[in-house]
Specification:
The chain is α+β, with helices and mostly antiparallel strands and 92 residues long. It has helices spanning 23-28, 47-57, 83-89, and strands at 34-38, 60-64. The protein has a two-stranded parallel sheet with strand order 1-2. The two termini are 22 Å apart.
Length: 92
Amino acid sequence: MAGFSESLKTIDKEPILQASYDWDKIQQHANEFVFINSDNDPWGCDDKAGRKLQEHLGGRLIICKGQGHFGSDTYKQPYKEFPLLLKLIIRP
C-alpha cells in the first residue's frame, strides 16, 4: 500500500528507507508482489513510486484513481474497510 523506495520530496528524512536495496534477495523471500498505489498521493507514494518497485521486483501494480494516501486523516479518507485489499490477500 502506497509503497516507495526512494526519498520523497515532501519529507526531509524518511526513517524507513535504506541507502540501497538487495532487490534479488528481496525477490527470493516472497512468492508474490502486489503494489497498490494511488495516482494522486500527496506525499509522493504514487503510481510512479509503485512502478519503480514493480520494475525492481516484478509482480502486479494496481493503480487506484483519486485515492490520495489511503486512509489519511489529513485528507479525510477514513478507510474503515478496503475490500480490494481483502480480496487480494484472502483467496480460496
